[in-house]
Records
---
Amino acid sequence: PKIVTLPGDGIGPEVTAAAVAVLREVAPDVTIEEHLIGGVAYDTHGDPFPQVTRDALGDADAVLLGTVGGAQDSAWNLLPRHLRPESGLLALRKALGCYANLRPVRVQPGLEHLSPLKAELARGVDILIVRELLGGVYFDGDRKIDGDTAYNTMRYTTPEVERVARVAFWAAEQRKGRVTSVDKANVLEVSELWRRDVTALRDREYRGVHLNHEYVDSVAMLIVSDPSRYDVIVTENLFGDILSDLAAVIPGSLGLMPSASLGDGAGLFEPIHGSAPDIAGKGVANPAAAIMSAGMLLRHGLKRPEGANQIDRAVALALREHPTRDLGGRADTQTFTRAVLSALE
Amino acid sequence: PKIVTLPGDGIGPEVTAAAVAVLREVAPDVTIEEHLIGGVAYDTHGDPFPQVTRDALGDADAVLLGTVGGAQDSAWNLLPRHLRPESGLLALRKALGCYANLRPVRVQPGLEHLSPLKAELARGVDILIVRELLGGVYFDGDRKIDGDTAYNTMRYTTPEVERVARVAFWAAEQRKGRVTSVDKANVLEVSELWRRDVTALRDREYRGVHLNHEYVDSVAMLIVSDPSRYDVIVTENLFGDILSDLAAVIPGSLGLMPSASLGDGAGLFEPIHGSAPDIAGKGVANPAAAIMSAGMLLRHGLKRPEGANQIDRAVALALREHPTRDLGGRADTQTFTRAVLSALE
Ligand SMILES: CC(C)[C@H](C(=O)O)[C@@H](O)C(=O)O
Ligand SMILES: CC(C)[C@H](C(=O)O)[C@@H](O)C(=O)O
């Protein structure tokens, strides 16, 4: 199988290198091809998602991404929007047709102390957030900034809602069988459609799954103060962006949150943390999320669950013995990566 | 001075009665007139914001609101959108011209243990969230659900951004002098306008205030894992809705979050919690947020800071001695309210 890696900007190259080292160990038969995305791609090709990268995806079985973007005051942020690093990432998601972004939130036994939450709240948390990734306010064409007015449009259609809801129901069937759909139906028409279509699909095809609906503001509070009430959460793009970053509070760091984006073709696997320009190049970034994303790549992209489990176990061990700085420990990227490699059985 | 109370639905009447009892004690000269809003107003007048309520606001100096809305499966939710309880609340906010919603998040000394966060993180937190309340996706006319498509529009204009940013800068000047403006400018044009206009206003008129910009997903995580980094947060309507509910995690309950909505005329004061239909009528709701909202009414609405301080001190004392059920204690609404009344000096 062929994997394309897109290390990107900031700490992206460091954490991707760590993930690749682990991947080579667990899946030595895999071919790895590296390409540019984001700010570095703009700097080299004048395009954050250049044609050469796009072409390389054609025969890829999976894509492993680092991070894109610069600091708030980066020169990239002065470019026209379509040339900025983040636009490269959005174009990549679109090109791959990855509409369902899976963001697992799990607190490993023995790692409750890493959470800012009281240990009894963090213990045993196991939530899967399914974020719609190709619709809503992120992609709708009707958007403008002009003089003293600006707007974006939050739009969904029934097929868009159904295809991502299917992924959530399917995942729930492998888990505890419960889906919480998150919206703001007390205010938004687009949420009314979302709620109606998710409900209809459950009634039609997934009667064994328990479905409830909650408002996004309420979930933002409850996911942190009572996380064990959730099994699978499904929501639209912007709410999913906010809730999944927020959920990183539970395990204790964005550095512990991998993701898998699935859809029509090759899957996209990326840590959910940003490019952390303040620590880029210093060799101290926590590569756990990137390594766990490589695990999700094995599980969902190459259908090799044993390899994925191997990685998850090794990461949990390494976190216990060599916590990185974001977790209050002292391990740097290399130390942590070596610990993972030597914990692989 | 004349105050209009709008107890509303669910636990609204119970917590409003508690707040009124405290208000009568601290400001015996105030005239109080009660009217209907929300679901009960629809049930009585066929309109969640009836004309008789609207008329009563004309000469009011401030409005004290309870809560509106029913359970997710309430019959009210089957009404056309403009007749639902929440639409009554939105129409009320609009009618009063309350564009700046102040939501203080404070952990009182000695009450850190109520937080699900580790005590060292919760200690001393004092954040003011300023939420834009009359714009964005909540109010823009361009919205529709039609067959298998639905959309809402997130729109802002420069004057809308400036008037709420002014409130945030003004508040920061009374506090630690720092404003964090929250947006999603890496994706949204409407956030680009927001960021540009907030920055320009600071540069023009509030050079003494330190301003920084952060993305909403990042703030969602940081406000819980590192709350002491924030002083004043200013953001648009939907982000403010989510972040302020979320911030309730820090003190430990939505039941501890009051709010003040200020603007062109009389201010609107309301607890940020919902109508909690599951416990309505049982006499166990925590009235602290409603009572503290009455405190904010005295401070911002009637310019009586001594009265406000009196209430804040009494609530803190009562919380220490008689925590309500949402806080893991056993006090019911009446016990708690009596404790506040007897703690007033
Ligand atoms: C960088 C940005 C465009 C992106 C998003 O909002 O989707 C990021 O926050 C994420 O969650 O992957
Ligand atoms: C009830 C609802 C319309 C309201 C809002 O979203 O503004 C509530 O959540 C709040 O925060 O006051």
---
Amino acid sequence: MARESIKVGLLGFGTVGAGAVQSLQENAELIRKRVGVPVIIKSVADIDWSRPRSVELAPEQRTEDAQAVINDPEIDIVIEAIGGVGVARDLVMAALEHGKHVVTSNKELIAKHGEELFELADRKSLDLSFEGSVGGGIPILRPLKESLAGDRIRRIMGIVNGTTNYILTKMTREGREYAEVLEEAQQRGYAEKPPTSDVEGHDAAYKICILASIAFNTRVNIDDVYREGISRMSAQDIAYAGQLGYVAKLLAIAADTSDGVDVRVHPTFVPLDHPLAAVSDVFNAVFVEGSSVGEVMFYGRGAGSRPTGSAVMGDVIETARNILHGATGRVACTCFERKPLRPIERIETRYYIRCEVGDKPGVLAKIAAVFGEEGVSLSQVLQQAGRGDIAEIVWVTHMTPEHQVRESLERIQRLDDVRAIKNWVRVEGG
Amino acid sequence: MARESIKVGLLGFGTVGAGAVQSLQENAELIRKRVGVPVIIKSVADIDWSRPRSVELAPEQRTEDAQAVINDPEIDIVIEAIGGVGVARDLVMAALEHGKHVVTSNKELIAKHGEELFELADRKSLDLSFEGSVGGGIPILRPLKESLAGDRIRRIMGIVNGTTNYILTKMTREGREYAEVLEEAQQRGYAEKPPTSDVEGHDAAYKICILASIAFNTRVNIDDVYREGISRMSAQDIAYAGQLGYVAKLLAIAADTSDGVDVRVHPTFVPLDHPLAAVSDVFNAVFVEGSSVGEVMFYGRGAGSRPTGSAVMGDVIETARNILHGATGRVACTCFERKPLRPIERIETRYYIRCEVGDKPGVLAKIAAVFGEEGVSLSQVLQQAGRGDIAEIVWVTHMTPEHQVRESLERIQRLDDVRAIKNWVRVEGG
């Protein structure tokens, strides 16, 4: 029997939920034409209806009973917009059990519970879509699964957290320190209190976990993602990087190598002429290297009610089309490989290293000798007189296995005239 | 009955065809897992088997008989990689008539004959895919049709021709003139002889025609696309633009306005801090503005055997998935609207205008008076002494209807001390 409409239930009416409803309300007629039948929000469940929202709902659309939404036999698609992994996980599992297709933008949920969710969705031939979980409104997951399906993806580098990109952009442009810029960002509502999830890289780790799983067709465990936040970036490091031709970004990186899959989040220096270098403020971008396609990049607003709502509605429409064509489960879970993880010590990249040394003859030579003995080859060096008898030396290495750099630094910090290794930062995208 | 494989026939074994075959050969096992069954190139038709190719085919795969490929009942999907609109059109029509799904990267074919091709494909519930026709390997058409399907697209601005972007990048970096850089590009194989299709904007016009049709759900006729090439860009204009904070790009633009759809290709000055400004050399990028998603950009290599082959294979895989799920025709032709075109005189944008004038008091005032009378408001002005008694004046206007600029320029060129209006260029993306 031909379907007369597709009915949607929404769980959680916060920022993302309201954005999705707003897109659907504004574009209802356009979406009807694009899908073939109307797409209708039948019920919206939230526990707090007292907060003001940017969009209006009819009284019969509102409920406090999420379970009733999941149980409603008329509802085809459930949008999860609650966030977190407690209630959200239980409700998504229950929705799938009840035969509902699910759309979510919950990165933590997919990164932590993806395996059980996809297993259930696949078993029941249901669509489970999550485009909004990475890069807000930027189309990236579906292009990876579909448009680039003929290609072997070798590497992904993403600026996938707007808060940290805003902070690093401010630090770079204004030469200011991390703590000061963070406080300002919190006052302006660009950073949360506490800011841990963003500034310590947890948010980015969830996202690269999802990207790597799709790109390399292997399940990446969130606990296996190497993670460093931006709190140790200083104005001085960023200034040196600028002199050497680099800009600071918190990159989420995933690479598929002969030695295993390498997935990590850390502050990174990127050459100024790399496409990621121009991605500033709260913008996000995902840079993908494929063996056929070469380099492609996807850029846009990585968060916010309307952009993420756009991604959610894109998923709803694709699910609706699949329902109408009896083709749900068309692109099932793509994690059909079991690739080993490569530990951080085994990665190979370039490194920026800054040392504070006694300003005496021969120090540079002693340090260079250690690098030489450890097989670390240097491509750039910058020496600057400091206060009194202190000088600073900055190096950038050629491609080097990380364990060689770590071993060098351990030896160097024990040298007599070396006061401190002030910082070291990976350099990517050369 | 479960399908054991998906069989593909390829028409034309040139650059794109070889790229597609190479992707499939290299990634056969990966593609089998992603699709569920093997995807096999059964036959390849070409009229000239004497040319050397980068990939090997088995003798039984080769044929000179395109019709036999189309008639082969075992073949599910036909890839058209012949180019042009004569034989290619006839063969694609015939393939659809024979019930074959079609994948092509032929922009001219889709721009000129899209209507009849889609009409036939839709009638027979066949997939007709053409991701590679715009932006080479960059996923852009499928994201527009699927990921952004919940959004109303307002505007698209694309750098969609690598040859002209290469030429303009060279002119900008090296301060050289068009003719000289073009000749060098031809010698290096970056530009064809004759270069007309690229440098006069025909290639970009086909692409924006396709993009606009998808984004705005209305058929755009290629003859309605306003088109100017880059041959009138001078090193002097590019230098002035740089002083004023702009860079020269050949932009393909489409906007959906209350006053009609506006589709055009012309040299454009783009602010240096716009994401498109950083897209250099042969790279392409498509910048999309949606009412929900805000600004997104898709970047990568817009041409070449491997990138375009990647797009073709992505389409083949999506078609294969649809075949296996009985869901072909899942996203049919999306041109369900009939929107009027807005003529170029009615567009509204900003303008760079360069005049050569007699270096006398009062000239600037006289010209400014004309602009004022015609309602053209100015935002930037630059006056430079020239040789002898000649000076140059450069303006950038605020947003102005184009007919007002044209009327002003007609009056200005008749003023006594105005020697010539040397150039005027639209400014977008501010």
